Amino acid sequence: MRFALFLALAHLRRRPLQTGLALLGVGVGVAVLLAALSLTNGFTGGLVRATLKAYPHLVLFSFTEELPPLPFHPEVEAYAPFAATKALLTRPAEGARGPGVDFATLVGLGEGGEGLYPELGLRVEPGGIYLGAALQHALGAFPGDRIYALSAAQERVELRVLGSFRTGNYLLDSAYAFVDLGTVERLAGLRAQGYQVRLKDPWRAREVGWALADTRFFPQSWQDTQRTLLEQLALQKRVLGILVFLIVAVAALGVANLLVLKVVEKTPEIALLRAMGASRLTVGLVFALEGVLLGVGGVLLGNLLGYLLGLYLAWRPVDLPGELYFLTHLPVEMRLADFLLVSGASFLAVVASSLLPLLRALRVQPGVVLR
């Protein structure tokens, strides 16, 4: 083992430029892959955070006509009774401003509603409404304006615009508005449908939902209602990872090319070693160790470069056009799991690429070469 390691290190040191380029190729591939995954994580996290600014972590629908009290759970941060309905919002023409009209989902919140969405700063009061930023723009409404909500049952309620909110998720900003629970009851004849719940850790919504569920409630977590979005983001990350991993595969082929050239160059030495009594296993171990050393070195270099690149992108984030995306810059979220997965896959790719030169070295026939 020591003899094989000595020869492997000697081979790598003999051609420092080729060895350095092979290490750099693997390292750059690993670093680019880690940076791409970190940016994807940041984008996904940013979109989820934007969505949860105005979307409940957990909804508990009541099976009973009278809304029962909510059971205690230490993960619950805030909760409020709610009812939601679709309505046509209209703003009458005033002065030089023409009328405005648009459909929206009205979410009526009862006592405790202010604590559900602290980032929005809602102060819902009877007869008032908070509009999503895009919905406000479509209606041409400003704080203090009068608008009317018309239900499918032809009930009409006059509301005063209290303000607007912006989550960054256009689907919410263009179609959601918050009112008090009494407004939805008058408009659609609905009583409280259940509770909207805010949790300390939104990713535990399913677990908490089933813990709170009994014969009186049916739980619905945000992961269930936003399943399509989460699946699309996960698919995007997988596709991006596969595409960028091709860079590592190309670098692994470079390692294979380097080792094949070494086998061709060292064929006489291999034959001499075999003639002096070295076994096939020893000869194969030399080139296997070269592949392992290049793999380990390239992966370590790639992890270092990827970490430094992630720090740089966090310090100087990539700017995004605010009118097209919900983020003005692309955040970075580095995860240990990604580093471990990329390191393992890249190392296996480099080691697998060394199998071809290893097999070629094992097929060297000392008698034929020495003759």
UniProtKB/TrEMBL annotation:
Chief location: membrane
One of the GO biological process terms: lipoprotein localization to outer membrane
UniProt keyword list: Cell membrane, Membrane, Transmembrane, Transmembrane helix
Coiled-coil regions, chain positions: none
Membrane topology type: Multi-pass membrane protein
Segments forming domain MacB-like periplasmic core: 19-207
InterPro entries: ABC3_permease_C, Lipoprotein-release_system, MacB_PCD
Bilayer-crossing regions: 21-39, 239-261, 282-315, 335-356
Annotated ABC3 transporter permease C-terminal domain residues: 242-366
Domain of life assignment: Bacteria
GO CC term (a single one): plasma membrane protein complex
Protein location: Cell membrane
Family per similarity comment: Belongs to the ABC-4 integral membrane protein family. LolC/E subfamily.
Protein name (database record): ABC transporter permease
